[in-house]
Amino acid sequence: MTRLLVLLVAFAVAACPPARAADAKGPNVLFLFADDQRADTIAALGNPHIKTPNLDRLVKRGLAFDRAYMQGAFQGATCVPSRAMLLSGQSLSRVDEKLLRDETWPGAFGKAGYTTFSSGKWHNGEKSLVRSFQEARCVFSGGMTDPLKAHLADVVDGKLGTPKLAPKHACAVFADEAVRFLNRKHDRPFFCYVPFDAPHDPHVVPDDFPVRYDPDKLPLPANVLPQPRSTTAR
Q1: Mind listing the pLDDT tens digit for each residue in 167-225?
Q2: Which residue has the higher pLDDT, 44 or 226?
Q3: pTM for the whole thing?
Q4: Peptide bond before 210: cis, by omega within 30 degrees of 0?
Q5: 155 three-state secondary structure
Q6: Which residues contact 28 (CB under 8 A, 6 or more apart)?
């Protein structure tokens, strides 16, 4: 899980060093995307209770947007349209949630000569996954799952294969796959997209997770009211 903590970022684009081959042009791009992480849960952006040491380092070394908002959804699962808007640049009233009508920017990177890779959660349909990325490993195709029991699949011959039970926490698997890809020798620039499925419900972490909290010391949000007493109708 150490690698997970190093890689996890709420919403960031990081430019990596240039590809190693002499004829490669353009910066490498690593995009890390957390699921359902609120901006006010990051210590470096003002939260005194939640511990986010690695996110804090990214904030201090880079640039943080603190006035960016998701436009909402016309359904309960806001992550579907929000991911579609993010990947296509379309507004909520214009976006195709299956990402089949409009070009995605991972796909545009591929057309520009980049190697494109993804590992993580994909919630916009298999057809758009293989249309956007040349390579994809350990993909969770769906909305919510227990990350310790996640079923992940690779893209093989242009199709998403049969999901298999992950050997450990899904986010750790995604991070490992990303690190493996980054450590490869690349003969052209790459675009690596890693959409973690945390900290989305059900908020399951391994027993050895390094960040711990005392629930009695965590303040509740101001809009949380005490549980009302049950009443009996007469």
Answers
A1: 999 999 999 999 999 999 999 999 999 999 999 999 898 888 888 899 888 998 888 87
A2: 44
A3: 0.83
A4: no
A5: strand
A6: 15, 16, 17, 18, 19, 186, 189, 190, 191, 192
Q: Where are the alpha helices (DSSP H) in the chain?
A: 2-7, 53-61, 79-88, 105-111, 126-132, 170-182
Q: How far, CA to CA in Å, does 147 sit from each of 37, 73, 106, 167? A: 16, 25, 25, 10
Q: What distances in angstroms separate CA 12 from CA 99, 102, 232, one per listed residue?
A: 21, 23, 51
> Parallel, antiparallel, or unpaired: how do β-strands 121-122 and 140-141 relate?
parallel
Using only the alpha carbons of the chain, give its radius of gyration. Answer: 19
CATH architecture observed for domain 2-217: 3-Layer(aba) Sandwich (3.40)
Q: Are the CB atoms for 191 and 31 separated by under 8 Å?
A: yes
Structure tokens at 41: 């849960």
CA distance 167 to 164: 9
